[in-house]
Amino acid sequence: MQKPETLTIQSSADVVLVRQAVRRVAIEIGFGLVDQTKIVTAASELARNTLDYGGGGTVQLEALQEGLKRGLKLTFEDQGPGIPDIELALKDGFTTGNGLGMGLSGAKRLASEFEIESCVGVGTRVTIVRWK
Amino acid sequence: MERIPILQMGNFLIVTIQVDMHDQLAMTLQDDLTNRISQTSAHGVLIDISALEIVDSFIGRVLGNIAKMAQVLDAKTVVVGMQPAVAITLVELGLSLTGIRTALNVEKGMALLQASTDPTTDSQVTATKGHLDDNAEA
User: What is the pTM of this model?
Assistant: First the structure.
């Protein structure tokens, strides 16, 4: 199994690089085209959140194996202002930026597992896993 | 500066997105297209996204904005060539691309634009258009 890989997210060009890296690892793991597209789209939403709301941060890509099951785990971290009300942030259509408010909720729907931790003034960590 | 080319063919503008767009590039396309519609008095815009491997909420918003701005400038927009995996993902993401007309490929998209901008097929178009507008307002 490959070692985890960490990328920085500091510009909108980095969001594209994250998409490409996630696609590459998803192909290595053997994801089909639909699974690849779902995890890459979720990664794009979360990378943009990290940049726009977190002021930049990192993403860690990790290939998982549980028995015969293979998966891809992505961990987005930033040291931004944090999310005061996570439940509200996860609502469809809620946004404090200029997006559609589908980023966080959409990424959650596209992932098999979704976890978010946020502390106001400290930062935010979002972890998603998609199993093959 | 990096830009996505806009081609003119008669009354129509044609854009084929061949790169993995970053957000700024998508915004530039939105501005460029809106300006070109105004400069050329184009009646239709065809956007080919067959090379796009994902459409996330940002790209979805930009496509929606382009269609709305074009509408205000009296031009129709058709988005063509969406890959099946992209369509599946879009629906799961929760984006319906409300108000955007789509066609399977460039040929069908051009036919749709031609039909909707040709004055001789007015009655037929009104029927189709009325139905689509209902959806857009829902």
Answer: 0.88
